[in-house]
């Protein structure tokens, strides 16, 4: 079984979507290959709050289990130069690599391209011979270092020369393959209709061509009678704009198909002397913007149908939210995914989690951990829905999955990091039954968000169960070394380490279920006096008695710990701050009760301070400091009350 990774900057771009459709179409019926489509972005990208996490996750795909990588390199050129991209993707060059649209000029790295000399020769000839245009401008993408941009500009100049037309440097506009960059360039050069001297303009892509249509119309230039406009790519935009945009059909989907087909040959035909690149054919498409009739009514209907289906996709998102909003634990999620599949379009889901979540900052470097374990496996076609509370860890630098489980699962999967904000929990594979990659990306963001929340909830619930077990074992004096290391030997309460660990988890759990509460900081009054006057043995008795006071005062579900010396901490989830006065009175009464019952020779007394935790205040260290400050104030009041 071969494993192929497909890297693309962003699923939600029409060019990328069509390329991926072609790759998917080729591999969809292959029984000996798994394909993992990965939306990567680029390092430290500023789009979105946490999209930079997608690039960090690319590190997983350097795993030895990946045999080949197809890089849709044209989708990255807007963000990085060719040399920068070459260095970014260098970790993959030890594998078989096919680059779509860009020659990295590296041994063993192949690429696909679409030479445009002949099609530009045809277009320039058409404008000259059919429409009488001899003054032709060019809207380049020279603002970025793109191989495609350079090839189209060069082909345009060659075509002018072949047809004995003059090239004017001042008629070259520089954009970046985007509508906004083209608009900015037009506004900087032309302020009125008379500023424009040429009769036709050829644009390096459709987006810039549409910017020309819009801006020239605003200047009062009539298209096509006064200006002929050509684009490049034959996107849905070119068909739906007014007037329809003459363009170049580079068969984007077929380029993806050809790259996948070439990649499969590389995998299977070892030792074959392959050509460095694969070339695909281009075709000129004549429409109203160049003065020709548009006979593509069927194509328009296809685009309209695609737009209608888009609304179906929007409904998929809404239905998905309805299904999963009741999900809480991971076992719930595993079961509910069988109904989610009808909404999401994913038939298989495999989720791996790291030993510990890793924080990744925008400007930081992601150091891939060595190990991950299987957390969830859902196969809706076979009715499987498994959540694994414990599982063996695999070396993710060697493999990304349990080989024996995935061996019989070929097909096309989407690879997705499992993240929440700046934290990476692991990664997942979803088998995609629908090929709307942009919508799949949105659905996976929703699904991963639910998985993370269910994971955190499950871990917290498990921890709470552990606490209950621990308390039971403490009472029975039958606890193991892991629990005793978090237990105070004298009082049998949690020690500082255990209190801080379990207490913080309880606060986070309370936040998950929308519950506030109180953190208490308490100490034993006059311990030094007791030690000095009655000896340290009685000092220990006083500390043990203080622990008993707290156990009697607070509920079994509250977390109580000895922080050191005569200091104690308590976390009471769900307790109202208004209960404080009664609670302090209760402590005083219990101190008297225990003193009398145990015939203590000293007076047992405690002071307590409080701090309220909430979604805004949930750091246990800070809350303890706030409670300690309140204790300082209360201690003065408490001592005065005892003296009187």
Report on this structure.
Mean pLDDT is 85; it is low at 477-481. The protein is 43% helix and 20% strand. 42% of the residues are buried. The protein has 19 helices and 22 strands. Helix 7 links the parallel strand 8 and strand 9. Strands 1, 2, 3, 4, 5, 11, 13, 14, 15, 16, 17 and 18 form a 12-stranded mixed beta sheet that branches. A 4-stranded parallel beta sheet has the order 7-6-8-9, with helices on both faces. It has a 4-stranded antiparallel beta sheet with strand order 20-21-19-22, sandwiched between helices. It has 644 residues and is α/β, with parallel strands linked by helices.
Observed structural traits:
alpha/beta, 19 helices, twelve-stranded mixed β-sheet, single chain, elongated, 644 residues, 43% helix
Q: Hey, roughly how much beta strand do the residues contain?
A: 15-25%
Secondary structure tally: strands: 22
Shape: elongated
Low-pLDDT residue intervals, each spanning 5 or more residues: 477-481
Count of separate DSSP helical elements: 19
Distance between the termini: 84 Å
Quaternary structure of the protein: single chain
Compose a concise summary of this entry.
43% of the residues lie in helices and 20% in strands. It has 644 residues and is of the alpha/beta class. Strands 1, 2, 3, 4, 5, 11, 13, 14, 15, 16, 17 and 18 form a twelve-stranded mixed beta sheet that branches. It has a four-stranded parallel beta sheet with strand order 7-6-8-9, with helices on both faces. The chain has a four-stranded antiparallel beta sheet with strand order 20-21-19-22, sandwiched between helices.
């Amino acid at each position: 079984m071969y494993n192929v990774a497909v890297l693309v900057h962003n699923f939600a771009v029409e060019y990328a979507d069509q390329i991926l459709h072609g790759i998917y179409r080729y591999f969809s019926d292959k029984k000996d290959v798994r394909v993992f489509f990965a939306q990567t972005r680029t390092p430290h990208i500023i789009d979105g709050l946490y999209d930079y996490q997608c690039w960090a996750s690319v590190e997983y795909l350097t795993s030895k289990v990946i045999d080949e990588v197809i890089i849709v390199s044209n989708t990255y050129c807007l963000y990085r130069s060719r040399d920068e991209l070459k260095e970014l993707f260098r970790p993959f060059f030890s594998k078989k690599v096919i680059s779509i649209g860009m020659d990295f000029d590296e041994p063993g790295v192949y690429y696909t391209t679409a030479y445009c000399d002949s099609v530009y020769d045809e277009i320039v000839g058409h404008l000259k011979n059919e429409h009488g245009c001899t003054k032709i401008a060019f809207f380049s993408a020279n603002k970025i270092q793109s191989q495609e941009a350079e090839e189209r500009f060069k082909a345009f100049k060659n075509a002018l020369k072949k047809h004995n037309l003059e090239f004017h440097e001042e008629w070259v506009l520089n954009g970046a393959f985007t509508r906004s960059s083209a608009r900015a360039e037009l506004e900087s050069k032309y302020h009125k209709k008379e500023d424009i001297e040429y009769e036709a303009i050829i644009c390096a892509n459709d987006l810039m061509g549409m910017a020309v249509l819009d801006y020239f119309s605003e200047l009062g230039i009539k298209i096509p009678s006064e200006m002929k406009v050509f684009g490049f790519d034959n996107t849905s935009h070119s068909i739906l704009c007014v007037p329809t945009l003459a363009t170049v059909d580079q068969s984007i989907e077929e380029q993806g198909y050809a790259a996948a087909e070439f990649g499969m040959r590389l995998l299977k035909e070892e030792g074959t002397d392959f050509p460095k690149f694969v070339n695909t054919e281009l075709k000129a498409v004549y429409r109203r913007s160049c003065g020709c009739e548009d006979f593509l009514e069927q194509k328009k209907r296809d685009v309209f149908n695609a737009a209608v289906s888009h609304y179906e996709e929007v409904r998929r998102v809404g239905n998905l939210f309805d299904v999963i909003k009741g999900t809480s634990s991971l076992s719930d999620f595993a079961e509910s995914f069988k109904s989610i599949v009808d909404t999401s379009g994913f038939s298989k889901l495999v989720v791996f989690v790291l030993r510990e979540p890793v924080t990744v900052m925008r400007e930081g470097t992601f150091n891939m951990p060595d190990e991950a374990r299987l957390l969830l496996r859902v196969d809706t076609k076979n009715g499987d829905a498994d959540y694994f509370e414990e599982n063996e860890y695999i070396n993710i630098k060697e493999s990304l999955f349990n080989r024996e489980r995935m061996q019989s699962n070929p097909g096309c999967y989407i690879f997705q990091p499992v993240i929440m904000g700046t934290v990476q929990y692991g990664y997942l594979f979803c088998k995609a039954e629908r090929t709307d990659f942009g919508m799949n990306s949105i659905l996976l963001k929703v699904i991963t968000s639910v998985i993370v929340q269910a994971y955190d909830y499950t871990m917290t619930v498990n921890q709470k169960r552990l606490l209950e077990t621990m308390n039971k074992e403490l009472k029975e004096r039958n606890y193991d070394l892991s629990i005793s290391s978090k237990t105070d030997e004298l009082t049998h309460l949690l020690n500082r380490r255990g209190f801080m660990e379990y207490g913080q988890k309880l606060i986070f759990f309370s936040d998950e279920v929308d519950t506030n509460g109180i953190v208490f900081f308490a100490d034993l009054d006059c311990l030094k006096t007791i030690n000095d006057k009655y000896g340290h043995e009685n000092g220990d008795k006083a500390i043990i008695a203080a622990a008993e006071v707290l156990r009697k005062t607070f509920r079994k579900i509250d977390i109580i710990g000895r922080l050191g010396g005569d200091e104690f901490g308590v976390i009471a989830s769900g307790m109202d701050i208004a209960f404080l006065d009664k609670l302090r009175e209760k402590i005083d009464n219990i101190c008297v009760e225990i003193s009398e019952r145990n015939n203590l020779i000293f007076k047992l007394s405690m002071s307590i301070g409080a701090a309220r935790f909430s979604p805004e205040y949930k750091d246990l260290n800070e809350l303890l400091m706030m409670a300690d400050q309140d204790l300082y104030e209360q201690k003065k009041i408490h001592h005065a009350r005892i003296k009187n």
